[in-house]
Amino acid sequence: MNRLRFPALSLIAACLLGSTANAATPGNDPAALAKVRDTALQSDYAYRQLEDLTDLVGPRLTGSPGAAAAVTQVADALRKLGAKVTLQPIKVPHWVRGEETASLVDYQGRPAGVAQKIVLTALGGSGATPAGGITAPVIVVHSFEELKAHAAEVKGRIVLIDVPFDQNMADRGLAGTAYGQAVAFRGAGPRMAAEMGAAAALVRAVGGAAYRIPHTGLTLLKDDARIPAAAVTIEDALLIGRLAKRGPVTMHLTLTPQILPDADSYNVIADWPGTDKADEIVLVSGHLDSWDLATGANDDGSGVVTAMAVIDTLRKLDYHAHRTIRVVAWMSEENGGAGGRTYDAVYKKGVEKHFAAYEDDGGSGRPFGLRAGIGMAGAKLLAPLQAALYPMGAGAFQREDVIGAGDLHFLEDSGVPSFEPWIDASDYFNYHHTPADTFDKVNPENLRRHAAVMATTAWFLANMEQPLGRANVATEAKGTK
Q1: pLDDT tens-digit map of 198-214
Q2: Residue of higher predicted confidence among 476 and 391
Q3: pLDDT band at 8 (very low <50, low <70, confident <90, very high)
Q4: Domain 98-256 carries which CATH code?
Q5: Which positions make up the signal peptide (predicted)?
Q6: Residue 431: which of 321, 326, 299 has the closest Cα?
Q7: What is the tens place of the pLDDT at every residue in 333-376?
Q8: The domain 26-94+261-463: what is its CATH number?
């Protein structure tokens, strides 16, 4: 008789334990959403983690010791929170910046013996000049059409593509659009110039602040035509343009970057397990790599630590949602997207288990709400989330067919509903990809708001009863980073 009773009691106990675990999840009760929001708003976890990442590790360009150290640091910090951490292997580009100098050595009206220094920085993927540099005439163009019109004059010259970033547009809430318009010339301009036989290509810095600092970034040069390519400061682009109106301008340019064999690196993945729907995933993320001119505080250390703060918030509350919440610190967003591409390839089969994905990669300016790549029916289900974010001034919502976030667009292509914060980015491109992207530029209150928006959104999505539906199929990302 006892032999029958004990298994029966064990079965009943197991059912009760399972029921208790599920019942203990407060779900999307308004009070629970408010607790998640307010706990994140009151914490400086993200800010402290960002200080460690930027001040102790520093720049994190793929293939560098800094990138490797960042993987270890972030993985260890997430393990301390009790998350299940996995390092996903990827191969990443290894481009190393060398010497970068330029001067104007001849122009109309130049006093004898004068050579004017030009402030510039090599673009990612740039080819190299000989060690002693090159001396060549400069041709200035202001559009792709003008470059094509002067194709016969380009061979053997240094081409300057002088297209301004529209700061007026950025000040009116369209910073991403302004960036997309200008960065097209950084991405495709050098490649076009190379195809025309240019000796080198320069682009005007893609940013709004005229403090004579250059903005680096990726260019789309091909291996068979990898000419030297650099970004010049706004002021120096204007100077060259003014001198070119007077007559011929000659520049001496030295760029000595190296392209080394691809390096081993990792995406850092950390899971906060769900309860009854643990096989379904709500992904939150930022990218761990940065350009090498500064410490990548806004691009995108702030996004990584915001995602880490989601788990810290839920740990403090002892909350586990129905679905698993997964933090991903992407590697190689800046120079090729290997992290996002590798993740998508690994999870392509069964990608429908990704309920939703969120990426924070637009700087640490104040978030006003959310942008979502979801269908109309799914958008209507988010009203309780908007209500929870409204008291902190983040209730704005913008639905789009495709948001095309940097690393998430691979998942979005597969139909995963995607989210990002709607941010005041009016000054973001003052610092983006420059030597000024440092910890002191991050406002701690705004960073807490980022953590609160992401944590509340992740919690809400991970507890939704109704499916959001698959997103519209994306066609391409928002442009070249």
Answers
A1: 999 999 999 988 899 99
A2: 391
A3: very low
A4: 3.50.30.30
A5: 1-23
A6: 299
A7: 999 999 999 999 999 999 999 999 999 999 999 999 999 999 99
A8: 3.40.630.10
> 422 to each of 172, 220, 265, 298, 366, how far by Cα in Å?
13, 28, 30, 15, 9
- Please list the residue range(s) of the chain that carry CATH number 3.50.30.30: 98-256
Contacts of 257 (CB under 8 A, 6+ apart): 95, 96, 97, 98, 122, 126, 127, 128
Q: Which residues pair with 182 in a beta bridge?
A: none
User: Closest Cα partner for 88 from 272, 288, 274, 279?
Assistant: 288
Nearest to 39 by CA among 56, 53, 26, 55: 26
Which residue blocks in 24-143 are alpha helix, DSSP H? 30-41, 45-51, 65-80
Q: Looking at the whole model, is its pTM more than 0.85?
A: yes
Total Cβ atoms within 10 A of residue 18:
12
Which residue intervals of the chain bear CATH 3.40.630.10?
Answer: 26-94+261-463
Mean pLDDT, rounded, of the chain: 92
pLDDT digits (tens, 9 = 90+) for 112-143: 999 999 999 999 999 999 999 999 999 999 99
Q: Alpha-carbon distance 74 to 68, whole Å?
A: 10
The tokens describing 278, both together, are 């643990």
Catalytic residue ranges: 333
The set of residues, in sequence order, having a beta carbon less than 8 Å from that of 166 and lying 6+ positions away, is 178, 181, 182
Place of tokens 């429908």: 352
